[in-house]
Amino acid sequence: MYTTKKSRTIRIFVALVCLLTISLCLYLVITFELDDAKDTDIEKPHIITIIADDMGWNDVSYHGSNEIPTPNIDALAYNGVILRNHYVLPICTPSRTSFFTGRYAIRAGMQGFPLRAGEPRGIPLGTKLLPEYLKNLGYSTRLVGKWHLGYQSDDFTPARRGFDTFFGYYAGYITYYNHTITQSGQTGHDFHRDDSMGLKADWSRQNEYATDVFADEAVRIIEEHDGRRPLYLQLSHLAPHASDGDETLETRNFTAVNETFHYIRDIKRRKYAGMVTALDDSVGRVMRALSNNNLLKNSIVMLFADNGAPTLGIHENRGSNYPFRGQKQSFYEGGVHGVACVYSPLIKNPGRIVNDLVHVTDWLPTLYNAAGGDVNDLGVIDGINQWPTIKLGQFGNRQSLLVNIDETIDREAAIIGDFKLLKKGAMIPIYDSHLGSHIDDGDPSVPPYNITSIMSSPASLAIFRTMGNYARPKKILHLRQESKITCAPFTEIANCSEICLFNLNTDPCETRDISSDHP
Asked: Can you list the domains of the chain with their CATH numbers?
């Protein structure tokens, strides 16, 4: 009896030990898998994309002009990588289509005139977009600001195309304070807060300056984000695009703008400078928020302009693409050779200039690879993975690019190596001219370049807090000089009524047609 009871006790004890052992093993396996997944997510960088709308090459001060200081944008450039040959499309919808799809806009039928408000057209629903790819890698995806890729039905809106949330406007532009757009004589409110639960018009920030409203939202998202999950935040600014209101160049505070930029004689250019300043301030706020919330140390922050500035004409804002020829809507360099820079602590040997060709289609494979994805997952695309070039300084693989083909007006252009082939000019010939402010470094009519303002900017201070170091004056001046593009003096420019060929290496301002030398 005692033996039987003792045997039963031993069996129960052994069973309990086995059960505890199994439970412990399961716990360790689950914990390891969770920790492994968490570590994998932590290794994926947070990606912040900032898009400036209609900003010209000469409107960031790191390119050599002292007229409009951009200390926060300059801080990104000097502490990261300057993309000196970054190409976009000449107008917004095609450029953004290429960014989101990694393919030339013509492949989606989006290569022509940008979408009008309410136009029943958009990127085909079968086309997978950048935020959808990143979402599959575990990213939280947020869009703040401009969409402009179609909203003919709910399925075309950003919260149905890969973004977890959207706060902004669907069409190409709005008024900075009222957040409205007028099309075909009818005015409507175009400000929305969308998510998976629904699409809702938003009136909460009416009569507030759009650039600040979008910056507020971006900062809020960063502050509330759980850093254990990778974040893709796209801040697609309205600025410095012209407003849709009677006052086409709306500033945050014109009295302050007048005092700061009193030396700019053209009053429209002066207002534009105020709009660019607000944009630059937003970059500083985003960088400070990333640093304060311990996200910057594992982030990629990139900024680029969607196309050249429209100095004159439709939606003119007095932006400058100097020294390039052309402006928004032009296939010349002023319309498509755009501002771009990338900052990240992941970049090796920062403070570099990349002279290789980079195209807006490249961002899909580049960011996907940086996020840990296999670019082979993307299928056949036109974009090329530039992450090894940006991060490690490897030689770029892009040797050519399609500027655009617009068959409706029989206009096209492409770049192969140093050569650019262009067929016909803009429908409005003046758009192909040399336009915009020519203020250059050393011009006595404007204040000198202020290196102290760069080193004390919120962006620089955020970088210093995160990295313990930042670009010093000698480095800043060297990079600024090297990032400038200068042209030989000229008195005449080629009239490209049919086909022109330019050597961009020797003639970046596209003044001399050499097609007869290369029949």
From this structure: 43-399+451-489 (3.40.720.10)
